[in-house]
Amino acid sequence: MRVHDSLIELMGDTPLVRLHNVAAGVPAQVLAKVEYFNPGGSVKDRIALRMVEAAERSGALRPGGTIVEPTSGNTGVGLAIVAQRKGYRCLFVVPDKVAKDKVAVLRAYGAEVVVCPTAVSPDHPDSYYSASDRLARETPNAWKPDQYSNPENPASHYHSTGPEIWEQTEGRITHFVAGIGTGGTISGAGRYLKDVSGGRVKVIGADPEGSVYSGGSGRPYLVEGVGEDIWPATYDTGVCDEVIAVADRDSFGMTRRLAREEALLVGGSCGMAVVAALRVAAAGGPDDVVVVLLPDGGRGYLSKIFNDDWMADYGFLSTSTDEGAVRDVL
Ligand code: PMP
Predict the structure, then answer these.
(1) What's the CA-to-centroid distance between 41 and ligand 1, angstroms?
(2) Is the pLDDT of residue 314 over 50?
(3) CA 251, 322, 19: angle at the middle one, nearest 5?
(4) Which residues line ligand 1 (CB under 6 A)?
(5) DSSP letter at 161?
(6) pTM to 2 decimals?
(7) Given the CA of residue 224, which atom of ligand 1 is nearest to it?
(8) Residue whose C-alpha is closest to residue 144's, from 65, 85, 232
(9) How far apart are the first and last CA of the chain?
(10) Using N-to-C axis directions, what is the helix angle for 268-282 and 248-262, rounded to 10°?
(11) Cis preceding-peptide flag for 208 (omega within 30 of 0)
(12) DSSP-assigned states of every residue in 181-207
């Protein structure tokens, strides 16, 4: 019988899909690594599996234990799937800017979720960093994966995402573009692609305007899952050849175009990464192969990015928004 024993076996090995309309007129090929094909719907399944299995081996996570983690949703889903299969409880802490739909998804998988305010500093007792530390201390038999410092986060991308892209492009990739949140994706996959190509592959980070990675001071920006106000240990500061800052307006405009013109219903950090990738591709030549990683699907953002009223409230919806995004990248 053609049967998978569990969803865990289906994590990784995501497809690479060519972008057509949004990349019209740019000389380089632009290929999207579509991570919503993971069973949890995002790139974070990869790190969830590797972090849990490493913790089981080290004894940090014991049978019947509780996984406590601050997560903007996607890591939580990956952890919840792995935890369910392996019999662990999940307790997640999320910032209040995260879409309600995403929190509902975590709860649907059986996880407990604590929502914390975004408008406080990281060392405030109510911040989502502090609250998760406290819950990890107070919960018996708890293990905190800490995706912001766990070396298994970038390692998962060094050992899966990076090699997949290299094989899928038969070594022809010239540029790798990804958003930076914990930095795990770009540090792991980017470092692998540099190592395997002898430094030939250029690695380009995409970052929301205002985030520290592109020289900002922290907040505010609306795109979820990327950008930071701190420098996490999982980000290899030497991996990026360039970091491109993208405005929320352009990220969301491109996210909507990806759904309408490429049938890729993806999240806002995907639109952000594609804007950066198109800037890279526009400056490249016909032999360049630009791979852009799309971290998650768009269903968690229907009430925000794909909602005209929400977009209009922020002034992102004008007749020229989408055209503006194209003009900006070309
Ligand atoms: N996009 C989304 C939607 C995410 O949830 C994340 C993870 N925080 C990222 C991008 C960035 O990935 P990484 O943490 O590996 O830098």
Answers:
(1) 12
(2) yes
(3) 70
(4) 72, 74, 179-186, 224-226, 267, 269, 295-296
(5) I
(6) 0.93
(7) 3
(8) 65
(9) 50
(10) 90
(11) no
(12) SSSHHHHHHHHHHHHHTTT-SEEEEEE
